[in-house]
Amino acid sequence: MSHSLKSAGKAEKPEVDTSLIDAFGGVRGMVDMTVPGFVFVLLYTITKDLALSSWSAVGITVLLALIRLARRETLKHAFGGVLGVGIGAFVAMKSGKAEDFYLPSMIYGVVLGLVYLVSVLVRWPLIGMMLGPILGENMTWRTQNPGRLAAYTKATWVWIALFALRAAILFPLYWAHKVTWLGVAKIGLGVPPWLIAIYLSWLILSKAPPPIKVLQEEEPAEPELPVPTEAEHR
């Protein structure tokens, strides 16, 4: 199958905005990952019962995943939430330290931030790799559209800054064993900064050159063979 490159009109702002939100799990995905942490810190602050708080967080995560399953929604982010909360609960109960409930996700955030940083340094910004296929341009932004390469690089730096901010606030609270404040900070550094990063990324991309979309050409129809007439059979 052959391909052709066609310059598309400027991407509509709502399209870019929706694509960004979907690429990062959607608002529902962020809520699903925020609620278990809220349940954990609330119960632990009230009861100081690590096991109860951990199992309650795991239970609410599984419940949210089942609701997604019942609604026939994607389980990709729900599964990630169950896995993340489950690991955090296991580590916390194993060590006996409530703050360790948040440690796996904190380490994951640092690793993810480093991945974003490396992607910028090697000129393969992760935002572009995520959005290119969604917006129909694939990787044309890297070789044929330097303006979009620059925009994707700037947008990726926004997310690197977000991960760095989270680490700078969360780890000192973790080392100080401030479980309640750590839980509150984890929630506060969830959806609000995520929405800000989405908006800044959208703002950067809305001012970028239009994407060069990759369109698949329809395969040429096979030529029809002439149907022999009765005379030709004779």
TrEMBL record:
Keyword Transmembrane: yes
Cross-referenced InterPro entries: UCP010219 (IPR016566)
One Pfam family matching this protein: DUF3159
Keywords: Membrane, Transmembrane, Transmembrane helix
Transmembrane segments annotated in the record for this chain: 20-46, 52-70, 77-95, 107-135, 156-175, 181-205
Domain of life per record: Bacteria
Protein name: DUF3159 domain-containing protein
Species this chain originates from: Streptacidiphilus alkalitolerans
Lineage of the species this protein comes from: Bacteria, Bacillati, Actinomycetota, Actinomycetes, Kitasatosporales
